[in-house]
Write a structure and sequence with these properties.
The protein has 344 residues and is mainly alpha-helical. A 3-stranded antiparallel sheet has the order 1-2-3, with no helix packed on it. It folds into 2 domains: 94 residues, DNA polymerase, domain 1 (Orthogonal Bundle), CATH 1.10.150; 181 residues, Orthogonal Bundle (hpI Integrase, Chain A).
Length: 344
């Protein structure tokens, strides 16, 4: 396979890189064999595009001579990524994307070797996830009701029902995020058919379209039931007749809440609860895992609840708070200062 000449043309972009036959077949492999989400496919295409531009320039057009790449070219691309200011996690993702792409082409006999196979990514700084304490979570979960109680009540019954629906919906939303430890995309995608309030179980679809069961605590079940009851009252009032699957969390127009909308709602209630408004919905997932492990749940069970493919991903939550360490020390160490002993 010879080097593709640099022919003047449009810059390489995600919507033209798929015109390369190797890339188009790889995308089909990701979508149909690996059940990759559109977000994952988009990231892979972005990384492959950047590599193509780095090697052949913006004026080159597909098809590209992927077989002409060696490990030195691959290493140079990763080094340029780091020098350009990319974080270690971003550079590691690029390495993973290109290694996977070349593995596919090698398997399909499009190239003879994988130049990214022997390369190592940069060391990633191991940062602890941000999480809320149990009292902070309680304040956050109480925030929607607090806003409703302190607000000026609407004049008409219809406006009152809508305002009450928003308060109940948002309470249910926060309860489900914390009770299940689900990702915001998983909770936003919930349908009526995936929620069993009698058993206190919801079925979510996670990464790679993998499905798993998550438990709902009693407060979450109560909150979801109240929100759904009011939602069903509002359906005829907004003139919407849903067909097929009904989304659990909807706006006042009857359409599904987006992940971006949920993020905006959370920021509002973080401010009401006087918590850090920069936290994301993932903080409730982190809190879910941290509180379970602090209370004695085993790591394997938490891994299943979170839907992690690898146990090493779950192990980051084995950190404990300073208060927890103090309690363990006071209870277990033979030379710990006895509580209430008055010793100095």
């Amino acid at each position: 396979m010879g080097e593709t000449p640099k022919t003047p043309g449009a810059p390489v972009k995600p919507w033209t890189i798929t015109e390369d036959p190797c890339v188009s077949q790889y995308v089909a492999h990701l979508e149909h064999e690996r059940n990759a989400s559109p977000h994952t496919v988009s990231n892979y295409l972005l990384d492959i595009t950047q590599f193509a531009v780095s090697k052949w320039g913006e004026d080159a057009l597909p098809p590209f001579a992927w077989g002409s790449t060696d490990r030195y070219t691959g290493r140079k691309f990763l080094v340029e990524s780091q020098k350009g200011g990319a974080q270690a996690t971003t550079t590691s993702r690029k390495l993973s994307s290109l290694r996977s792409f070349y593995r596919f082409m090698e398997r399909e006999e499009m190239v003879h070797s994988n130049p990214f196979a022997g390369l190592k990514g940069p060391k990633r700084a191991r940062t602890l996830p941000h999480f809320l304490s149990v009292p902070e979570v309680v304040r956050l979960l109480d925030a929607p009701a607090k806003v409703w109680d302190e607000s000026e009540k609407p004049a008409t019954d219809k406006e009152r029902r809508r305002a009450e629906f928003l308060a109940r919906r948002d309470t249910a939303l926060l309860e489900v995020l914390y009770s299940t430890g689900g990702r915001v995309s998983e909770v936003a995608g919930l349908q009526d058919s995936s929620v069993d309030l009698l058993s206190g179980v919801v079925q979510v679809r996670g990464k790679g379209k993998k499905e798993r069961l998550c438990a709902l605590g009693r407060p979450a079940v109560k909150a979801v039931k109240a929100a759904l009851d009011l939602r069903n009252v509002l359906w005829p009032e907004i003139g919407r007749r849903p067909r097929g699957e009904k989304p659990v969390f909807v706006n006042t127009r009857g359409t599904r809440l987006t992940t971006r909308s949920i993020e905006r709602l959370l920021k509002r209630y973080l401010r009401v609860a006087e918590l850090n408004p920069l936290l994301t919905p993932h903080a409730l997932r982190h809190s879910f895992a941290t509180h379970l492990l602090d209370a004695g749940a085993d790591l394997r069970s938490v891994q299943e609840m979170l839907g992690h493919a690898s146990l090493s991903t779950t192990q980051i939550y084995t950190h404990v708070t300073v208060q927890k360490l103090r309690e363990v020390y006071q209870d277990a160490h033979p030379r710990a200062l006895a509580r209430g002993s008055g010793e100095q």
